[in-house]
DNA sequence: TTCAGCCGATGACATTTGTCATATCGGGGG
DNA sequence: CCCCCGATATGACAAATGTCATCGGCTGAA
């Protein structure tokens, strides 16, 4: 019997997953969490064999939860489930030692099989998402350029970004200009979007 | 027996819903769709009693599908399911004659009950989302201002927006300026974000 | 009919951004 | 030790953006 921990912020979806997996022989859902930190706490307590983590959760996301689980409950194999296939997610998951990675586009019938496969110590990576990740380039931005871009998300004017980072306005513009150039974007807002899509932000 | 049509773009989630509802006595899932247009086609063909539509779907979203179903299959009662509780969605749904509206945060066990209730001709509105909607202010932007803002999302420069909408650049800037002023934003990008948050985009 | 409000446009102007050259300072690699 | 690179800054200039006044056409409500 595989003891499973399920983390997914949408209660309705989580309940549906429980119904889906509950019918599977050999799988038992022993815990449910709606946030990443809850999942970590429950995993430490329940010692499940496998944890299925959604990425998109409030307070602590599934990737951070996976990273913590690696130290808190190293015996627990992890399957990450994600709605939007941002490249970069997969990379982070791999670095955290995650063994399963599937998109929500994946056929539902395959999930139980994937869980069993991961439980046996094998890996499963959604081929669709793996293909995206292979095309993923290294981030060409320096750390400070990334900071600046991050602060620029949300449409703040240069003056506020400069204040937020404790830099001069000129410096901020230099960084943003460099980022825009490197990403071949029209302006910083497009650059922000691009960086987000590539999983660099 | 309630004949149910299920529309949800994420295959994994859809399959889970089928599992969840499949265990319910008196409910039978007769069709599944991954896009709004598919749902409309299937509803016309299968004549289900109730359709459960996710809002967030590619090509045609759940709200538009609901609007079309009102004419294509008027006997079919509709339950809308939504992940993010953008205000404005509820309003549109009500105008389309939708009888059920639940967030994905809703307890999963309640879904079957809601479907039965809607099938009987009663209504069910998620109290959480209803509260948000009551606090909803009217959108102060004119239709064209909204179009322009929409085209500005993603960081396109004015020149491209103008081309996309077939307007002069001056006009585009006027609209954007008006939108920025009305929303008390620093610039159009902040205005886009604000409008999105309010469910106006 | 008159008036208000939206649509679309133009021109002028101030401000914000984006770009570039250039400078200093520190750290790391050859 | 020297050189390069990243972080930080300044100044200058061009381009994009935001704001405002103003115009004419159209439509719906009073």
Polypeptide structure, described:
Two copies of one chain form a homodimer. The mean pLDDT of chain A is 91. Chain A folds into two domains: 2-134, Rossmann fold (3-Layer(aba) Sandwich), CATH 3.40.50.2300; 143-197, Arc Repressor Mutant, subunit A (Orthogonal Bundle), CATH 1.10.10.10. The first copy, chain A, has a six-stranded parallel sheet with strand order 2-1-3-4-5-6, with helices on both faces. Chain A is α/β, with parallel strands linked by helices. Chain A has helices at residues 11-22, 36-46, 62-72, 89-95, 111-119, 127-134, 143-152, 158-165, 169-183, 188-197, and strands at residues 2-7, 27-33, 50-54, 77-82, 100-103, 124-125. The structure holds a DNA duplex (30 and 30 nucleotides). Chains A, B: One of its GO terms (biological process) is regulation of DNA-templated transcription.
For the largest interface, the chains and their residue counts are: A-B, 39 and 39 residues
Helix content of chain A: 40-55%
β-strand amount of chain A: 5-15%
The gross shape of chain A turns out to be: elongated
Q: Find the CATH topology of the largest domain in chain A.
A: Rossmann fold
Oligomer: homodimer
Domain Response regulatory (chains A, B): 3-119
GO molecular function, one term (chains A, B): DNA binding
Keywords (chains A, B): DNA-binding, Phosphoprotein
Pfam family, one (chains A, B): GerE
Keywords:
homodimer; 201 residues; alpha/beta; Rossmann fold; Arc Repressor Mutant, subunit A; 2 domains; 10 helices; 6 strands; 15% strand; elongated; DNA-binding; Response regulator transcription factor (chains A, B); DNA-binding (chains A, B); phosphoprotein (chains A, B)
């Amino acid at each position: 019997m595989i003891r499973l921990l399920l983390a997914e912020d949408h209660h309705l979806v989580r309940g549906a997953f429980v119904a889906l997996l509950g019918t599977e022989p050999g799988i038992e859902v022993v815990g449910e969490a709606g946030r990443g930190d809850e999942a970590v706490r429950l995993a430490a307590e329940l010692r499940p064999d496998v944890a299925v983590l959604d990425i998109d959760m409030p307070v602590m996301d599934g990737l951070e939860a996976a990273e913590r689980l690696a130290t808190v409950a190293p015996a627990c194999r992890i399957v990450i489930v994600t709605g939007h296939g941002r490249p970069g997610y997969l990379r982070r998951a791999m670095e955290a030692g995650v063994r399963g990675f599937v998109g929500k586009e994946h056929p539902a019938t395959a999930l139980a099989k994937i869980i069993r496969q991961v439980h046996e110590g094998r890996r499963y990576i959604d081929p669709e998402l793996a293909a995206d990740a292979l095309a993923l380039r290294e981030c060409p931005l320096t750390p400070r350029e990334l900071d600046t871009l991050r602060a620029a998300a949300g449409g703040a004017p240069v003056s506020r970004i400069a204040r937020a980072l404790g830099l001069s306005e000129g410096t901020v513009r230099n960084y943003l200009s460099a980022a825009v150039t490197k990403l071949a974007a029209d302006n910083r807002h497009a650059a922000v979007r691009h960086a987000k899509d590539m999983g660099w932000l």
